[in-house]
Amino acid sequence: MSFTAQPPAELQVQIQKRQPLGESNHYIIARIYYPLPNSIRVKFNNKIVDPILLTDFNNTASGTQKELNTSQCGSNIYYYTNRTISFVVTSEIDCIITVEVTESVQLSTHFAADISTFFSSNTSITNFINNLCALLQITDTSRVKIVGVFSGSTVVTTSITPSISSSGSTTDLSGISGAINTASASGALTSGLSTIGFGNVLGVTSVYTTPPAGSSYSIIPTNNPDSP
Question: Among 47, 204, 210, 228, which one is least packed by beta carbons within 10 Å?
Fold first, then answer.
């Protein structure tokens, strides 16, 4: 799916139903490239669909995979290195996907350990997220997602999304970005993450991004010739 300009900040996608109640075994896989570095997320039924973890370490016990689930509405992979997202839209009657650009803090942590050490325990990801949230005083751990784990020695890429106030507005990411910078400068961040057991932290880098002003756009059929 391509655009002549910057993709919309919010995009809704649904495919035409061939049967009145839809069919779960029919699907499309769409791919969108975003030229500016931002956090891209997929929502289904107004809930965020976690992206599939990208890793160059094949460990089936850890539940990692690189293939989309074509039977799951909203299954997605965000390739943050080239800012491209791929997602599944099924023909189920309620499958309407929202792809949106959001502000985020992207954190890369470099551990002095082999990648097999990181995946030696099925609690590695949970332990990393819990420690990071404790260091940054983030109470909602669902806001922190590991989106990639790569060797050399081990680089863990994390995305932190905004909290949502009761009015629906996003809050506090700029404060978290400042807390990361302060903790990095004092050494508290590297020492705190080193206690997880994956080896010493060689370095931590972070980028705070905010989405550009954009538009909303819907690709949703309004007339189904097969419907009664």
Answer: 228
Residue 133 CB contacts under 8 Å (≥ 6 apart), including other chains = 139, 141, 144
The whole-angstrom separation of Cα 51 and Cα 84 is 12
Using omega within 30 degrees of 0 as the cis cutoff, is the peptide bond preceding 2 cis? no
- Which tokens sit at 184? 């990095």
Return the closest-CA partner of residue 94 out of 48, 43, 45: 45
Q: Is 120 helix (H, G, I), strand (E, B) or coil?
A: coil
Q: What is the model's pLDDT at position 61?
A: 41
Taking the C-alpha atoms of residue 40 and residue 212, their distance in angstroms, rounded to an integer, is 12
- Residue keyed to tokens 């863990």: 156
Provide the 8-state DSSP code for 95.
-
Strands 144-151, 54-55: pairing is parallel
Q: What per-residue confidence (pLDDT) applies to 99? A: 92
pLDDT at 30: 92
Domains of the chain (ranges, CATH numbers): 10-102+212-219 (no CATH), 104-209 (3.30.70)
Cα gap 15→208, rounded to integer Å: 34
Give mean pLDDT in consecutive 10-residue pieces for the chain, a chain of 228 residues: 82 81 79 81 87 60 62 86 86 89 85 79 81 87 81 82 57 81 86 78 82 64 48
